[in-house]
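Priority: medium. Attachment 1 of 2:
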C-alpha cells in the first residue's frame, strides 16, 4: 500500500521568515553593540507573553534600559530598516504613545495574528530566553556560566567550555490509510473531543523516520510504512522543533495504547475531518464530536493539507 505524496499547502506559522537574523554579528559583538543606541527592544515576561498591537509585536527603544545591552539581552537580528533588535526577560511596558491599543498575548494562544516579523522575533526570543533560564550552570562541573555572542551561547569562565542553545527535536505524524481515512488521537490529559495527530520526542541514536515508526507503535500500536517528510516548525514551549511527516497504516490493525499517553484513537474519513476543520479549533464552542488543533500548530497545517486532497 502506498500513500499520497502530498505537501504542506502553507508554511507553518512559526516557520515564517520576516527579519534578518544577522548571525554574523553574533561573533562580531562590537558591531552588534554599536547598533544598540538605535536598536529596538522586545520584552518577554515570565509567562512568555509579549505586547501586541495590530498584529505587530510592540518594540521599544533599547537605549531606555542603558547605554549598552544588559547581560541578559539576546540579539535577534536586524529589521528591514537596518535597526538591530534585542530581547530581554522583563515586565512588559506599553508604547510611548498612550493611545496605542495593545494586548498581552503569547505565541501559543495567538500566534496566528502575528505578522511574519513578529512571529519570527517572538519565537526566537522565547526559545533563547527559555534556554538561558535553565542554562546558568555548567553541565560539566556546575560552575556558573555567562552569556556570550549576543546571547547565542554561554561559556564556563573556569574551563572555557561553551554551551549552545538546546533544541529538543520531536516528530509529528499524520497516519492515513493511503486513501481517505486518517488516525486522530486524544491524549489522556486532554479534555473530551480534543484530537490531533501523533507526536513524540526523538531518542538518542535515532533517525526521524525511525522515531515515527517507534512512537506510533508505542502510542497506538500501529505498524506504519512509507514515512515521508512534510516540513518543520519551531515550537519554543520550551525549546522544541517539530518535524512533520505522514505515513501509511492499516485500518484493520487493532489499536493498543502501550505507553499510557493516549486515551483514545480512531480512524476518521476525510469528510469528517473537513467538517471538523470547518467548525474552528480547540477553542471553539462547537458541539462537534471532533475538535482539532489551532492554526499556530504544524499539526493543523498537516491535517488541513491532507484534508484538501481530492
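Attachment 2 of 2:
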Amino acid at each position: 500500500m502506498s500513500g499520497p505524496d502530498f505537501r504542506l499547502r502553507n508554511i507553518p506559522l512559526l516557520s515564517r521568515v520576516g527579519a534578518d537574523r544577522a548571525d554574523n554579528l553574533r561573533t562580531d559583538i562590537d558591531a552588534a553593540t554599536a547598533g544598540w543606541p538605535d536598536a529596538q527592544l522586545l520584552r518577554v515576561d515570565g509567562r512568555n507573553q509579549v505586547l501586541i498591537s495590530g498584529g505587530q509585536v510592540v518594540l521599544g527603544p533599547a537605549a531606555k534600559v542603558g547605554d549598552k545591552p544588559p547581560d541578559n539581552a539576546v540579539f535577534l537580528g536586524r529589521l528591514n530598516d537596518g535597526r538591530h533588535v534585542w530581547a530581554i526577560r522583563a515586565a512588559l511596558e506599553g508604547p510611548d504613545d498612550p493611545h496605542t491599543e495593545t494586548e498581552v498575548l503569547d505565541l501559543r494562544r495567538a500566534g496566528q495574528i502575528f505578522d511574519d516579523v513578529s512571529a519570527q522575533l517572538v519565537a526566537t526570543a522565547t526559545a533563547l530566553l527559555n534556554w538561558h533560564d535553565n542554562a546558568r550552570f555548567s553541565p560539566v562541573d556546575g560552575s556558573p556560566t555567562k552569556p556570550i555572542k549576543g546571547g547565542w551561547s554561554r561559556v564556563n569562565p573556569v574551563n572555557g567550555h561553551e554551551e549552545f542553545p538546546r533544541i529538543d527535536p520531536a516528530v509529528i505524524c499524520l497516519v492515513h490509510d493511503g486513501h481517505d481515512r486518517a488516525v486522530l488521537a486524544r491524549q489522556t490529559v486532554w479534555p473530551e473531543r480534543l484530537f490531533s495527530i501523533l507526536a513524540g520526542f526523538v531518542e538518542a541514536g535515532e533517525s526521524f523516520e525511525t522515531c515515527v515508526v517507534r512512537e506510533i507503535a508505542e502510542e497506538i500500536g500501529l505498524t506504519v510504512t512509507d514515512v515521508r517528510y512534510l516540513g518543520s516548525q519551531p515550537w519554543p514551549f520550551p525549546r522544541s522543533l517539530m518535524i512533520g511527516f505522514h505515513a501509511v497504516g492499516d485500518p484493520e490493525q487493532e489499536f493498543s495504547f502501550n505507553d499510557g499517553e493516549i486515551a483514545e484513537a480512531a480512524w476518521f474519513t476525510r469528510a469528517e475531518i473537513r467538517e471538523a476543520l470547518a467548525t474552528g479549533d480547540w477553542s471553539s464552542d462547537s458541539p462537534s464530536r471532533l475538535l482539532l488543533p489551532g492554526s499556530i500548530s504544524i499539526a493543523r497545517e498537516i491535517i488541513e493539507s491532507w484534508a484538501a486532497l481530492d
